[in-house]
Amino acid sequence: MRIIAGAKRGMKLLPPDGDATRPIIDRVKESIFDVLYKYNLIEGRCVADLFCGTGSFGLEAVSRGAKDALFVDADKGVIEILKKNIAKAGFGSQSRVVCANAFAIGASNRSDDEKFSLIFVDPPYVMSAETGEKSQLGGLLTLLSGQMAVDGLVIVRTEKRINLLDNYGDLRIIDKRIWGQMAVNFLAFKK
Question: CB under 8 Å to 47, separation ≥6 — which residues?
Fold first, then answer.
């Protein structure tokens, strides 16, 4: 697991202990960022990495020019590894770490009222099995619509067999990609 492009290209990330997290593999991360570049949502933008684990997605975005990243995870052990990865990359001034349940706070409000252009949502698969409007994931996606910039995207990673609804509040699915046993859904504001 490493940062694959940008200022910290090739930097190895400290791995999580045990199998509590599912780090995203480099090939899939590269493919996701290829999609994001066509929307111009990285350089100078604010990013949130929810259920962040060791911070692979958020750190990749900052390495590629994102203004800053918010990292949210409820596991204190994982947060300690994340903080080491942030320090190793030298991204301390561009990172904010919150140890909390992302389903409850989403991409918690920024102090400067700027909204997030990119929000990566990667809950444990067991927590994303239910996808209805009243599910934990459905509630989170509705919450995120108030924390996201109008031209932003929410990226949700689930197991391949899980199907999200077409719409969650003001958000709708605009793209879905499948890699191996995982699906990555891209959601944007309805037009």
Answer: 57, 58, 61, 62, 66, 67, 68, 69, 70, 116, 117, 118, 119, 120
- List residues bridging with 68 in a β-sheet: 46
* Per-residue pLDDT tens over the stretch 46-88: 999 999 998 999 999 999 999 999 999 999 999 999 999 999 9
Mean pLDDT of 81-98: 97
Tell me what the mean pLDDT of segment 115-119 comes to. 94
Q: How far from 173 is each of 33, 109, 131, CA to CA, in Å?
A: 17, 23, 13
Q: Domain limits of the chain?
A: 26-189
**CA-to-CA distance for 51 and 119, rounded, in angstroms?**
11
Q: What is the CATH number of domain 26-189?
A: 3.40.50.150
User: Average pLDDT, stretch 131-140?
Assistant: 92
Are 100 and 38 in contact, with CB atoms under 8 Å apart?
Answer: no
CA 53 to mean position of chain CA atoms: 10
